[in-house]
Design brief:
The chain is mostly helical. 75% of the residues lie in helices and 0% in strands.
Length: 182
């Protein structure tokens, strides 16, 4: 057991996994309602966190955590490239964000769920330590929420590309960091 995860973390894993699925579902709803690149980035990050959570739990049983980490790093790097290219394209050719108020409300719900998931006693991340139980990074969801609100309420679709680019850089940084940790 690591020092940054409390003993009751194993007992909380099913609830946290369910919460992660709920966050991804709310983000998917927000993406379908708005078509926002920031929301797409948050959905990708949430899906990667969920895949890492499930993959690392499985690799703990099989003893091959290294393969799961490399696979997730490759997925993060690929997603980073695609999201970055889409963000540049959105700046060059802006598309209006639709149903902004419904999408922003859904992302506020996702932000609240994400903050809940990472603040549950026993699942808090220690600085500088990887913790697969922390299934949702609230920073990514908050960046997407602010970007979507800016694009929807200020009427500037190009603002939607900024959180997409930020999240793409975040995914790139995370993927490279995972490969370095090998």
């Amino acid at each position: 057991m690591t020092a940054d995860v409390a003993p009751d973390a194993a007992r909380l894993r099913p609830a946290v996994a369910l919460l992660a699925v709920l966050i991804v579902a709310v983000e998917a709803f927000a993406l379908s309602a708005t078509g926002s690149l920031g929301v797409a980035g948050a959905l990708i990050a949430g899906a990667l966190h969920l895949a890492g959570f499930v993959g690392l739990l499985g690799s703990r049983r099989s003893g091959d955590g290294q393969g799961a980490r490399v696979f997730l790093a490759g997925m993060a790097l690929t997603a980073s490239g695609l999201l970055g290219a889409a963000s540049v394209a959105r700046v060059l050719q802006p598309h209006a964000v639709t149903a902004g108020d419904v999408g922003v409300l859904a992302m506020v719900v996702a932000s609240a769920l994400s903050l809940t998931a990472t603040s549950v006693p026993g699942l808090r991340r220690a600085p500088g330590r990887a913790d697969p139980e922390a299934v949702a990074d609230p920073s990514v969801v908050l960046v997407a929420t602010v970007g979507l609100a800016s694009a929807a309420f200020l009427g500037s679709p190009a603002l939607d590309a900024a959180p997409g680019a930020i999240i793409a850089l975040w995914l790139l940084w995370g993927g490279v960091d995972q490969l370095r940790a090998r």
